[in-house]
Amino acid sequence: MSGRADGSPIVIGKLIGAHGVRGWLKVYSWTQPRENILGYDPWLIRREGEWRSVRLLDGRRQGKSIVARLDGIDDRDQALALRDAEIAIHRDQLRALEDGEYYWSDLIGMEVRNLTGERLGEVVNLMETGVDDVLVVRGEIERLVPFVQPQIVKSVDLAAGEIVVDWELDYLEGE
Q: Which of 62, 78, 77 is nearest to 26 (CA)?
């Protein structure tokens, strides 16, 4: 997921096309598992830079994808008009996390420093690799730092906006 803890909408997916002729939409979900996106209502849909609230009427897993039906979208042309629109929610719709758990949206923009205080850069994205999540950290160069607690990620201070990692400036990806 992307977004920030500052009250702006948290993006959890994208509308990628129409499904059938009755207004159903194909959904690309960033939630885990992917069908969790259907547990949020309302959705915020961004079109032309504007967020608007839309009720989720129905949804289901369809093969490897998700399809959904939104209030006011009744035919294929209306569904196609929403193609590539982002899906977001309000922060208060998220479940509370346990200690040591973080929403990706909270980590984006945080400063990353190593154990000696050297700045590695800022978290610009996270990637799912199948084994561990990876911080994409952009500084003088872009680094991929495994988000493995407590072996590599020593601390996450959301209030200070800082992550401390056991990672040296000269480590290359995969070391």
A: 62
Cβ-based neighbours of 30, under 8 Å, separated by 6 or more:
1, 2, 11, 12, 13, 37
Q: Each residue of 25-34: pLDDT tens digit?
A: 999 998 888 9
Q: Where are the alpha helices (DSSP H) in the chain?
A: 76-81, 104-107
Contact (Cβ atoms closer than 8 angstroms) between residue 122 and residue 111: yes
- The answer to the question of residue 4 being in a domain is no
* CATH number reported for the structural domain that contains residue 120 in this entry: 2.30.30.240
Q: 98-135, pLDDT tens digit by residue? A: 888 888 888 999 999 999 999 999 999 998 887 888 99
Structure tokens at 56: 């989720």
Cα three-residue angle 103-140-9, rounded to 5 degrees: 25
Q: Which amino acid is at 84?
A: D
Q: Are strands 65-70 and 24-29 parallel, antiparallel or unpaired?
A: antiparallel
Asked, for residue 171, whether it belongs to a domain, the answer is no
CA pair distance 19, 154, nearest whole angstrom: 45
Domains contained in the chain, number: 2
- Which of 93, 126, 155 corresponds to the end of one domain? 93
Q: Which amino acid is at 32?
A: Q
Tell me, what CATH number does 83's domain have? Answer: 2.40.30.60
